[in-house]
Amino acid sequence: MSDATNVKDLLIRVCVGTGGLAAGSQEVIDEFGRQLGDRGIEAEIVKKCVNKTGCRGFCAKDVLVDIIIGGKSETYQLISTDKVGRIVEEHILKGEPVKEWLVGPEYHSFHDRQTKILLKQCGHIDPEDIQAYLAIGGYEGAKKALSGKPAAVIDEIKSSGLRGRGGAGFPTGLKWEICSKAEGHPKYIICNADEGDPGAFMDRSVIEGNPHSVIEGMIIAGYAIGASYGYVYIRAEYPLAIHRLKIAISDARSRGFLGKNISGSGFDFDIRIKEGAGAFICGEETALIASIEGKRGMPRAKPPFPAHKGLWGKPTVINNVETLANLPAIITNGGKWYASIGTEKSKGTKVFALTGRIKNTGLIEVPMGISLKEIIYDIGGGCEKNRKFKAVQTGGPSGGCIPASHIDMPVDYESLMGVGSMMGSGGMVVMDETTCMVDMSKFFLSFTQSESCGKCVPCRVGTKRMLEILTRITEGKGKEGDIELLLELGTNIKATSLCGLGMSAPNPVLSTVRFFREEYEAHIREGICPASVCKALRRYVVNVEMCKMCGKCFKACPSGAITWEKKKPASIDKGKCIKCGACYEACPFSAIT
Amino acid sequence: MSDNKIKITINGTETLCNREDTILKAAKRAGVHIPTLCNDERLEPYGGCRLCIVEVKGVARPLTACTTPVAENMEVVTESDTIRKMRAHVIELLLSNHPNDCMRCEKTGDCALQNLSYEYGVDGSRYEGEKWDLPIREDNPFITYEPNKCILCGRCTRICNEVVMAGTIELTGRGFNSMPDTAFRKPRTLENCEFCGQCVSTCPTGALTDRKGRGKGRSYEMKKVKTTCSYCGTGCNFYLNVKDNKVVKVTSAYEAPVNQGNLCIKGRYGYDFIHHPDRIKTPLIRKGDKFVEASWDEALELVADKFNELIKKYGREKVGGFSSSRCTNEENYLLSKWVRCAIGSNNVDNCARV
Amino acid sequence: MTEKNEQILDKYDREKGSVISILQDVQEAYGYIPEDAVFWFSERLNIPASSFFGVTTFYAQFYLKPRGKNIITACCGTACHVKGSAGIINRVREELKIPAGETTSTDGKFTVETIACVGACSIAPVFIGNKKVFGKMTLEKASEMLKELDKG
Amino acid sequence: MPDIDTLFLFGSNPTEGHPIVSHWLKKALRKGAKLVVGDPRKTWMARRADVWLNLKPGSNIAMMNGLVNVILQNGWENKEFIAKRTEGFEEIREKVKEYDLDRVEKLTGVSKENIIEAARLYSHAEKAMIVYGLGVTEHRTGTENAMAIANLALVCGQLGRPSTGIMALRGQNNVQGASDLGPLPATLPGYQSVADDKGREKFEKAWGVKISPKPGLKSVEMLDECRRGNFKGIFILGEDPAQTDPDLKHVWGALEAVEFLVVQDIFHTETTKFAHVILPGASFAEKDGTFTNGERRVQRVRKAIEPLSGMAEWQVLSRLSTLMGYPMNYNHPSEIMDEIASLVPIYGGISYDRLDNGGIQWPCPTKDHPGTTTLYTDLFSRPGGLAKFIALDHSGSGEVPDEQYPYVLITGRVREHYNNGSMTKRSAGINDVVPEELLEINPADAKQLNINHGEYVKVSSRRGEIKVKAKVTDRSQAGNVFLTFHHREALSNILTSGFRDPITGTPEYKSCAVRIEK
Questions:
Q1: What whole-number distance in Å separates Cα of residue A53 and Cα of residue B180?
Q2: Is residue B267 located within the same domain as residue B293?
Q3: Considering the domain boundaries, does residue D326 fall inside one?
Q4: Does domain C70-151 sit in CATH 3.40.30.10?
């Protein structure tokens, strides 16, 4: 027992995000509790956020555990209950960290190039404890804002140069100003947490990791535009985020940050949560409003803009999670401070979800204007298996593919637009030579097509037709002229669609045709998928030199396309082959290519 | 100019319009035609069909005229090569999911989609791909629904909910598979439908048609006679569609001040009585407890003599007449004149109070 | 039925724009959106049943038919088909007594759905039971899978 | 109309009776107008009302007096309007004092809270409109009911401005025109009294006959005289009193008694059964003419097909008249309208050539007059131009329920059918969706009488009985039942009472006592 006293203010941090929990972090916590309990050691175990790449973008290496003794911190990766015992014995008791389980150098490089404002607290505070948030100066921004005039808040945000993080990048301060001047009462502030892009989870991470920052942001925004009511429209697919938001809201209410006369300012404001019901289109502001009103989430034409006629026909501002979460810091540190980060037109930082064929997949926060190269190589560590980087898709289904040739371009709103992509909500999918660009754009198109609300003709029918053409190309049934037809469809859909979804749906196709036209042509003319992704265009042949005549392929083939006799190399009948790859998998000597 | 009027330019010509006008309304005032499919003046602007797109100086992408409010000194171009190409493309997409069976379609000659296809010279043939193949729905006596011909303009569902507030139909499903339908796709009955046929009256294609009128003749074969409804006291106008001296259908008179083309089940579907076999076609004279047919001369002479006789025998005060608020003004006037002049009493009354 | 509905109705107390929230609660309460529940609320709120139906069919989250406790997804890709997935699917449906044209067993324990190729042809025929992948499926293994899933 | 702040719908069920008018009201509701509905039945509008005044049949005056009283008690009246535009206010102020909330609650069965809220919504609205219908006029106190409504509007000054005023929804397509153009015993066309020498002389001159200054008999009186054998000959033009009049057995007796009865109609009706000569009528599709709708708009009826019988009514009447020795020579109905214009000032400016687009609302005195949209905007149609309050008392229905006949029968229309059904019942489809008469009865009552939905029941009153299917629905409140009068197989007017409004002679269709048995 005596050595227990040697452990000076021990702090243990364990990941309990969606991903962390899946990796068994709760069990790890319990195990630590048990083991330390047995030894009568006092320790504070902090559950930290957030999700599979949340806290430090490394939940790929979950369960991550920080052991902090007397302020000195060591981080372990891939921890499971069976490893806890040894950590307690050697590290906590004897003070000798278990070297082979500690995180490696890439873990640090991953962070050094980032600039964290939003994610700063993610992973350091307990998202379910308002005390923790207050301890790091939480709600100071709101208090400061409420002590001044709404107009002052708007000016502050204008001076910060903050632009909407939802994708289009409309100046936030300007949006507020229009709404604050608009006729009508009551006014509403809506937090758009309907993060639907495949491969994007920034907003979820922020809410799961630091929900109060969003609430504080809404208070500030609400005060600025004179809203008395706020809604958070959040995907039902985010149960953990919803759970933590609910806790945060009721805590904030009990502390008087929500409700009547907020911290003596005379400002009344409250927030309620509206859960989405599974429709990507509800990320579009007018559709989102329709959905909150309990209707089919179909967008309407703008003008009039929500700032004039929004929820229930009243002036409404809709900001996305990231935008709102930025506000407390901006108010506390001043617009000038924020404007000092980033480029001339794009200020501050942006959170990206770095995924795809890249080593360090993760959630990153970088200053605007950082080059793609830095993100992909310095932070992302380059493509996995050191394959050749081919392109990166930003902006999700609304964005486009940026080829390797543009790798030095800065990441900001205008530059991305310039190459036919967009900032979007912040998805960044990295692709290497094993990615088929036609297949890629087919994937995104099939997504947008299935999420089209059906109101306007170009999106409803147009995307359907584009998808049909892409599908036949990837099935080797492409025709001369298909590419031109895709381009014609794409440009017209962009030009004539009612809402953002339709206007941007063709981007993945248009940008890939622009930069990778030869891949399309290969599919159509030679009937080849260069990346050999499109099943129908694969060709399986037996490499006679390498074939050891074992017959495993023969047994594996579901369609009887393989002929083989003992001591004779196998051969594949193209006619019968259904290109399922069973033989390829089955061959122990990779003689099938 | 009054402060409610503002100046805008359409196709290079300055014109005055109301501040609250949309570009479409302003253009209509100025006599400029802009094609539309989802627009119906009885309904809120929708902006779904995208055909009314126009160029507005200073705006990068084309705007829909039906939803965009006018602004002082706005410069609008309603026809240009780009605009026409885009419209043609939209029509083409619509036709790519349309049966295109015009030769046997009830709506031929009166179909907005057919006319646009003609005007813009396009069909959907460039796109092979999925087409709707849904069965025709004739689950009620009045309204035939051919989903395959629906272009999702939403006019039927909007008029049902915005104007009639019957809530019979609503858009269902999503994207390529959305279509107007009843709750749980049940047949239309009085439980869920008023059978006012408003949806039919606004449908621009052959998707919704009057079942009773189907196959009775093409729109252009009909003599259309505008008249006033003979049921309740609202005074709705509509067109009697006549072919071969038979009333085969009633269609809306959108310009009517009282009802703007709106009708109820009686006005739109209550016309068959006109040619019903029960109609009395010749005068009938009672012989005992039977009625026998008679010529007009025979009958009228009998009536005249009989009334004169009664007057002689009992005096004018013992004879009179009822007229009806179902009859025309002229008939009512005439009856009161007849009683007062031919009979010579004031014993004339009508059911106007009922 | 009525009692459950009354509770939901009270919760929203006729506040405007509550159609989606009500449907979410209804699905929570019944596991799907029952027709008569829709008509029940329509009657009380003077909101057309068609509006409820329009919303229900717009959002992916809502189901118009009850789904089973266990969800089985059968791959219908070419490989699986060639290896006789159809036969196995039929057997599974028989064992679960799933009525023709339906996807869910009458006891509501299982829902059997089919999807296009899951891209695991090498282990065809492929079934996915409650997210777990079952490869190289045979009639025997199918029954085992059902037992396993039933146990949960 | 859509700019109304508060819509007060009283004794009218427009979604059934006037579907297209109801579109306007619905538009107002969608724009956020508050809705007050006074109706014993839970109609479509009542279900959606902010306040539903579910008053007992026959308690209209008590209801209105109660509302006025609440308004005066709270000082919600429009004092300026009362001072400038009305007279007789003191009188009514005293009268309504007798109608305190307790008494009104007892008389009408409407809760105090609802009465107060209704009064508040109507009086506080900037623009409030009252729309009433046959639920007001088809009582023996019909005229007084209407006056009581006028009192309410006057007290609040909800008159004479756009989106205010009182609108009466009238039953039939040409109710307005028929009363305008004089088949009335006491007035000549254009409401010109036969007693008024100047007016009478004008017509005597134009028509070349002498007209008695003594009013003739009302239809009811003619029928009564018939039954007594004192009335000998009647020409009935397009009317079916033997189905649509109340207390039918009474009517039938009269029609049997008359010595010579001529009926002109397009179908055989209950009435033609009694005729000595039946003349074929022409449907509205077979002739030219005009109808005048509820908003006094004169509109064209246009000939679409030849009369099936060869002649339209105007031709028949002309020939008959000529045969009787009074020549009438018209080549076209337009000539009749020109004659009307020359004799009837309110139609003075109306001629067919002006009616081609949209029609004209009278008064339209001259050829260049555009017609008149809102009436009474400046001056009220009484000498002196002041509106007069009229103090009224509750007297209730002529027949009230008792042990023997415990239920109140309300009769009215359904959307699908029209009056005696002679037209709608012969229109394909309509008769399929609504094939027969249904007695609307409240679930509670049905339970008590253990009547199931769809069962046949016997409905009887002091005047007779009919068999109909029961429709169990909460549209009818306990104690009230509802029937239409569209179906010859179930003549609901056998049951209705003979009470009538003494001034207009309108029957009390809206309330009589009945018994219901399985």
A1: 43
A2: no
A3: yes
A4: yes
Same domain for A30 and A53? Answer: yes
Flag if C82 and A294 touch (Cβ within 8 Å).
Answer: no
Q: Which CATH number fits the domain that encloses residue A413?
A: 3.10.20.600
CA distance B131 to chain C (A): 20
Residue with the larger pLDDT of the pair D485 and B57: B57
Backbone angles phi, psi at A387, to 5 degrees: -70, 170
Q: Which of A296, A316, A436, A577 to mutate to test the interface with C (most CBs of C within 10 A)?
A: A296
The pTM of this model reads 0.89
A464 touches chain B (CB under 8 A): yes
- Chain B: closest CA distance from residue D195 (Å): 11
Sort out which chain B residues have CB atoms less than 8 A from D204's CB and list them. Answer: none
Task: Work out the end-to-end distance of chain D between its first and last CA atoms, rounded to an integer number of angstroms.
Answer: 46
- Amino acid A555: pLDDT: 85
Predicted confidence (pLDDT) at residue A63 exceeds the cutoff of 80 = no
Of residues D241 and B106, the one with the higher pLDDT is B106
Please indicate, yes or no, whether residues A188 and A321 belong to a single structural domain of this protein: yes
What is the mean pLDDT of the segment spanning A465-482?
Answer: 93
The residue type at D132: Y
Q: Do D267 and B280 touch (CB under 8 A)?
A: yes
Domain total in chain A: 5
Do residues A512 and A547 share a domain? no
Rounded to 10°, the helix A463-474/A507-521 angle is 20
Determine the Cα–Cα distance for residues D336 and D340; give it in Å rounded to an integer: 6
DSSP state of C148: H
A498·B94 Cβ contact <8 A: no
Whether A218 and A145 map to the same domain: the answer is yes
pLDDT tens digits for C47-104? 999 999 999 999 988 989 888 888 888 877 666 776 778 788 888 998 888 888 788 8
Residue D432 belongs to what domain range?
407-517
- pLDDT, chain D, mean: 90
Is the pLDDT at A4 greater than 60, yes or no? no
Tokens of A110: 């991953």
Under the banding of pLDDT at 50, 70 and 90, the label for residue A490 is very high
| pLDDT above 50: residue B82 | yes
List the single best residue of A280, A460, A482, A499 to mutate versus B (max B Cβ within 10 A): A460
pLDDT in tens, B303-313: 999 999 999 99
Do D34 and D143 have their domain in common? yes
pLDDT at A6: 54
| Domain that includes residue A476, residue range | 437-526
Residues A493 and A468 placed together within one structural domain of the fold = yes
Question: Does residue A176 sit in the same domain as residue A54?
Answer: no
The answer to whether the CB atoms of B195 and D171 lie below 8 A apart is no
Distance (Å, whole) CA A498 – CA D344: 58
In a 13 Å sphere around the CA of D370, the CA atoms on its Cβ side amount to: 3
CB B232 within 8 A of CB B158: no
The answer to whether the complex's ipTM is over 0.85 is yes
Asked, for residue D379, whether it belongs to a domain, the answer is: no
Strands (DSSP E) along D85-226, which ranges?
86-87, 128-132, 165-168, 187-188, 192-193
Tell me whether residues B184 and C47 touch, CB distance under 8 A. no
Q: What is the pLDDT of residues D478-513, one digit of tens each?
A: 999 999 888 888 888 888 888 888 887 788 889 899
Burial classification of residue A344, based on how many CB atoms lie within 10 Å of its CB (0-12 exposed, 13-18 middle, 19 or more buried): exposed
Cβ separation B329–D19 shorter than 8 A: no
Q: Is C7 on the interface with A (CB under 8 A)?
A: no
Interface of B with A in 90-119 (CB under 8 A): 90, 93-94, 96-97
Q: What confidence category does residue C119 fall into, taking pLDDT thresholds of 50, 70 and 90?
A: low
Q: What percent of chain A has pLDDT over 90?
A: 41
List all chains that touch chain A, counting a touch as 3 or more CB pairs closer than 8 Å. B, C
Cα separation, D159 vs D162, in Å, equals 8
